[in-house]
Every structure is written in C-alpha cells, then in structure tokens.
Amino acid sequence: MSHTHQHHYKVDVTWTGNQGTGTKTYQGYGRGHEIRIEGKPTIEGSSDPMFRGDASRYNPEDMLVTALSTCHMLSYLHQAVLAGVVVTAYTDSAEGSMETDTHGGHFTEVVLHPVVTITADSDPAKAEAAHDAAHHGCFIANSVNFPVRVEPRIVVESK
After folding, report:
1. What are the tens digits of pLDDT across the range 141-157?
2. Position 1 confidence tier, pLDDT thresholds 50, 70, 90
3. Please, what's the b/e burial string for 18-46 (b: 16 or more CB within 10 A of its CB; e: otherwise)?
C-alpha cells in the first residue's frame, strides 16, 4: 500500500510594470515583477527579451530550466550516496528549447550536461548509472510534458 504525502509551496508574485496606463497597449506596460517566498530574498523577474522583457531579470523560461537542472543535481547527490559514490564537485550547463507560433509556445526539450567529479576510489560506472536513477527520481522532470535528456560526464580525481 502506497503512502502519499502532500507538499505545498507558496509563492507571491507582484507585477511592477504598470507605467501609468496599465495594459492599455501591448507596448505600454513593463513585464517586471517580483517573486517573493517567505524568508527568502526577492527575485526580480521579467519576460524574455524576445517578449519585451528586461534581459537583466530572470524570466519564467530561465526558471524552468533552472528548476530541472537543480532538481536533477539534488536527486543525483542523493543517488550517489546510495551508490557509495563520493562526489566532490558538480556543475551543469543546462539548455532548454522552446518553440512558439501564432497560438503560443511550449518547450520541446531540456538537455542537462552535468559534469560530476568523484574520488579516485569511487566507481565511475556507478556514478554514471546514478544519473538514470536521479532522473527518474526528479520531481520536476516527472512533472513536465517534454523530454529532459541528461548527457553526463564523469571526472575521476587523481590519487
């Protein structure tokens, strides 16, 4: 018998882009907003510059790719412990692809490129295999309707 647990997350978003005329015209309002989560620093957001946004602020597309990358990393670190693999460094250069048309848009895939450094006495095969387990355990990857590919590289520290 499976036990389910409910988890809830509260995010407050405030649009800060009213330049005096609200949304009277498409060009007449800013895309700026603030994302607040109690007890955490405020995140300044906007839309992608392609959609009249501020390139110096985070946009929803950035945040979605970030969520997938960080979720995989955290899931991977857990799987590494279970596999007896000692990770000493982890970086990722994640990339997302989105397509738009006259009806809107959607992500077509996200590709993660984690580079994982492990100790010399850790098993590189187990380090590689932990990525598959991490991917299947990632809550965010399990929640999206497009492929999330993981193309890892394992680096073994010299003794």
Report:
1. 999 999 999 999 999 99
2. low
3. eeeeeeeeeeebebbbebeeeeeeeeebb
Claim: this prediction has a pTM higher than 0.85: yes
Q: In the numeric block, which tokens belong to residue 113?
A: 């490129």
Q: In whole angstroms, give the CA distance from residue 111 to residue 152.
A: 10
pLDDT digits (tens, 9 = 90+) for 82-113: 999 999 999 999 999 999 999 889 999 999 99
Beta partners for 109?
97
Question: Within 13 Å of residue 12, how many CA atoms lie on the same side as its CB?
Answer: 9
Q: Kindly report the length of the chain.
A: 159
Its sign, for the CA torsion 112, 76, 92, 12, is positive
Residue whose structure tokens are 């955490």: 40
Tell me the C-alpha distance between 31 and 51, whole Å: 9
Contact 132, 116 (CB under 8 A): no
